[in-house]
Amino acid sequence: MRFLKPVFIFGSLLAILSYVTTIVFWHGGWPAGAVVVNLRDAKEQPVKGAVLRVYKERTMTLARSPLAPMSGEELHSDDKGSITMRIKGGAPFGGKGWELFWLIPMGDKAPQFDCVITAEGYKPLKFSIWQLFESPDKSHQDLPKAVFMMDGKTVELRIYTHSFVLEQ
Length: 168
What we know:
By secondary structure, this protein is mainly β. It has a single domain (30-91, 109-165), classed as Immunoglobulin-like, CATH 2.60.40.1120. It is built from one helix and eleven strands, in the order H-E-E-E-E-E-E-E-E-E-E-E. It has one helix spanning 4-22; strands spanning 24-30, 33-40, 51-56, 75-76, 82-87, 90-100, 104-107, 113-118, 125-128, 145-150, 153-165. A four-stranded mixed beta sheet has the order 5-2-11-10, with no helix packed on it. Strand 8 (113-118) and strand 9 (125-128) form a beta hairpin. The longest helix is centred in the first third of the chain and has 19 residues, at 4-22. The chain is elongated and about 75 Å long. The mean pLDDT is 84.
């Protein structure tokens, strides 16, 4: 039992030292852009009328996110099987993080949302909202751009395009 006190003190000092040497304050935000989701079935035919909903991570509680329409309308795929969303960007978030014993990430994380696409006759498709802002074959600077009107202003936005196959 006598050795527990020095081990506890040494462990506590290491924890404090790892906090002091690894703490970071970070800032982030949603990228401005247009997100296009193309939905197809197994025969490569467009899936019309599919609905994209955004939930708080690991819940079925609808979330306010950069994709959620302000008017409360749902995001539906059109006759071509596409859902197009314009995102203003911004909505800053941030926090602080550190690594306990230089190994274990601790602290704040970016907001997490789950996207779920449902369509009658198909299995629901679930993925992280962050997947929509990734581009496996292009850097962000190389993404195509389009000009849109937002809040009465002309803006050039990157276009993030993704295709998904819905299973029956």
